[in-house]
Amino acid sequence: MKLNSAGFENPIGCYDAAVQELIVIDDVLSAMVGVEGRHILINIVRGKQDDVTFQVDPSMDLALQELAKRIFPLCRSFLLINQFVESRSQFKSGLVNHAFSAALRALLLDYQAMVAQLEHQFRLGRLSLQGLWFYCQPMMGSMQALSTVIQKASANSFSGSAVLNLLQNQAKAMAGDNAVRLLLEKMTQCASNAYLSILERWVYEGVIDDPYGEFFITENKSLQKETLTQDYDAKYWRQRYSLKDGIPSFLANIAGTILTTGKYLNVMRECGHNVQVPPSENSKLMSYGSNHHYLECIKAAYKFASGELLNLIKEKYDLLGKLQSIKHYLLLDQGDFLVHFMDIARDELARKPDEVSVEKLQSLLDLALRTTAASADPFFEGVTCVVERSSLLKTLGTIKDLEVSQSDSGGNDLEEPVSITALETFSLSYKVLWPLSIVLSRKALTKYQLIFRFLFHCKHVDRQLCGAWQVHQGVRALDTRGTAISRSSLLCRSMLKFINSLLHYLTFEVIEPNWHVMYNRLQSANSIDEVIQHHDLFLDKCLRECLLLLPELLKKVEKLKSMCLQYAATTQWLISSSIEIQSPEEPIDGSIGLNKAKQKKSGSLPQVLKSTGSAAMMDSILKFESEFNAELQSLGSTLSRSSQAEPYLAHLAQWVLGVKNEKTGL
């Protein structure tokens, strides 16, 4: 077979124009379905982005060449679309590409039917090349728009939501051509059906049925619900299910709601509570459009899942009852068990943290709980004891995510105690089971424990000062006016006033008001995320208003408490050193002798003040008083200054300044 230099058999130019037109029509009809003709060759360029070029016999009539070249873009679009359909129909391409390819295949069948009809007209002698060009016009824009989409999809290896976004963007770009826009919207709808079927299972069942990883929600199966009680960051709740990049644009504004809906359904399934959103008329998500019906379906599913989970946690698992129980113990709402516990565990709590037997403390705690009013609480068995290894100040410095104020407190650093006891590190904990661990996570319990440790140590200081006050009351019968004991009694009273004022502020000015606000908000919450938000806000407010996030003030309070403990520890020695027990051999006369006789008969010996050593005692008392007054005044000034930025400190300032004024008046 003889070929010319261009690769054609016999040059078409040897025929007259009428014969050439018939030959060109036959070749163009073949090219329209991807088949080479005798005088029109097809060159397919393979690569990252496929392309198609056409070569015509140069001897062809120029007018016929121009008409044929006008139809070549349609032929090119067919070849590119057909190649895309074949490649994207493979298993690995994903459900969206499969659905898109199926829609394209249906379109190509219509296109091939049109070509067959044109060929039939040609065989009947009723089709000219000009007529062929005319009949190709309606399909030209649509095929070219689709070829643009599939070229971009192929070049970027798009799948899933990326294909949907590409189709939707192309439809918006073709807003001026109504026919092409409608075709692209139809393609988008067909391709999105597979995606919406995944979405439907997620929002109605809480199941991710996504074999190709196309869905915009991913599941991290390595995170288990049991980690919530140990993981401070609560990764299970935040990261077990999370959003990926590439959210379909028509779901972008409601993606968070979609994620939350499935999460809620999953929690209920993890609880063994088999629940499914009740199907209603037109609740299927198999299509979307300008009426936004799919958005209404998603919102209805969210509302159902949210209400069902909230009802489950409130009613079946009694969230509010558990919170009330935690308030009894970790916020010392009912302190009778604590008084009993501190009495029976006094010796164990006086040990160093690493020498304490936690098992013994736990048994003593159980005893205190069972023998006091706490035994009426159905949840008291969930209370456990913990002995930390560092002081409260040091612990606050190591916990992340606490918004600790960075105020200038460099000159007020409180030295870490050289030797701390379990009294400074003791804390309670609470056993929380799924699903309440979503709200009462490790992070939330840690915040409760920080507040408890502060309250517990304040209670300890109060008990020690009460013991010192009782010592003073023991010598009340003596005439102590103008003596060191009288001065010590006034100092003890001032210290008690300070610690009682602090405890009153913590309990009645901070915890109780904030608790009531949180409790009322929980009653009206519409979702578990709102419950978590209100609960976390309560804890954060309590931490800040209890001074735990204000290191400058906290260090001053800790220093004052340390002074109170030092004073209470030395009070017994100071008073005993100034009291003399008179021996029975001394003569008895007068009224004093009568009193001594009565005391001797009752088995007690009289006490008198020593004349020696009173100066040393007075010096010690004055030193305690001076340091306590100075630190209290410093705290009052700092509170007054800080109350402008932190208004709640004004309440504590009033109480502290009240202590100072009373001291001045004395």
UniProtKB/TrEMBL annotation:
Top-level division of the source organism's lineage: Eukaryota
Annotated compartments: Cytoplasm, Cytoskeleton, Microtubule organizing center
Gamma tubulin complex component protein N-terminal domain boundaries: 25-316
GO cellular component: gamma-tubulin complex; microtubule; spindle pole
GO annotation terms (biological process): cytoplasmic microtubule organization; meiotic cell cycle; microtubule nucleation; mitotic cell cycle; spindle assembly
Domain spans labelled Gamma tubulin complex component C-terminal: 319-653
UniProt keyword annotation of Cytoplasm present: yes
UniProt keyword terms in alphabetical order: Cytoplasm, Cytoskeleton, Microtubule
Pfam families hit by this protein: GCP_C_terminal, GCP_N_terminal
GO MF, one example: microtubule minus-end binding
InterPro entries, alphabetized: GCP, GCP_C, GCP_C_sf, GCP_N
PANTHER family, per the entry: GAMMA TUBULIN COMPLEX PROTEIN (PTHR19302), GAMMA-TUBULIN COMPLEX COMPONENT 2 (PTHR19302:SF13)
Function: Component of the gamma-tubulin ring complex (gTuRC) which mediates microtubule nucleation.
Protein family: Belongs to the TUBGCP family.
Name by which UniProt lists this protein: Gamma-tubulin complex component
Source organism: Crotalaria pallida (Smooth rattlebox)
Lineage per the UniProt record: Eukaryota, Viridiplantae, Streptophyta, Embryophyta, Tracheophyta
